[in-house]
Amino acid sequence: MVHGHDDGMRETVARFIQKLGLTPIILNEQPNAGKTIIEKFETSSEDIGYAVVLLTPDDIGYPKDRPKEAQPRARQNVILELGYFVAKLKRSGVCALYKGDVEIPSDYHGVLYLKMDSNWQIVLAKEIKQVLGDIDLNKVFE
Questions:
Q1: Which of 2, 44, 62, 111 could make an S-S bridge to 70, C-beta 3.0–4.6 Å?
Q2: 80 with 42: CB under 8 angstroms?
Q3: What gap in Å lies between CA 70 and CA 61, rounded to an integer?
Q4: Nearest in space to 84 (alpha carbons), one of 60, 113, 108
Q5: For 122, phi and psi rounded to 5 degrees?
Q6: CB burial of residue 67 (10 Å; 0-12, 13-18, 19+)
Q7: CA distances from 57 to 70, 87, 112, 127 (A)
Q8: Among candidates 27, 28, 6, 2, which has minimal Cα distance to 95?
Q9: Strand 94-98 relative to strand 59-61: parallel, antiparallel, unpaired?
Q10: Which are the contacts of 13, defined by CB distance < 8 A and separation ≥ 6?
Q11: What is the pTM of this model?
């Protein structure tokens, strides 16, 4: 899982992933083992089959000459890690789950952007099942 500063959303999604019988990997919960942050990120992402990237409105961005166009966006590390996982797992192995009116990267069309609404759990579970296979969708409703 990739996340920004929305701890509530991170915990909600992580517990849901556990409910599906999977183990969410959250970087700040992994041991540092004397590694740099990028080394820790690379090591923690070695054996994963699917990535859920949480796009939350943690920052504000706008073109430098048009501050009136300011809009909420995800943190830059989240966008970088989104790209990393698209390269590693291909588009089908990544779901960008977003909350609020967060800016969506414009050159990332064709990837699943899933709004965190009343249906997000069943849609996410189906997407993960499509890639990983052995997921019991009945667990979504428990």
A1: 62
A2: no
A3: 5
A4: 108
A5: -70, -40
A6: exposed
A7: 12, 24, 18, 24
A8: 2
A9: unpaired
A10: 1, 3, 24, 52, 54, 97
A11: 0.90
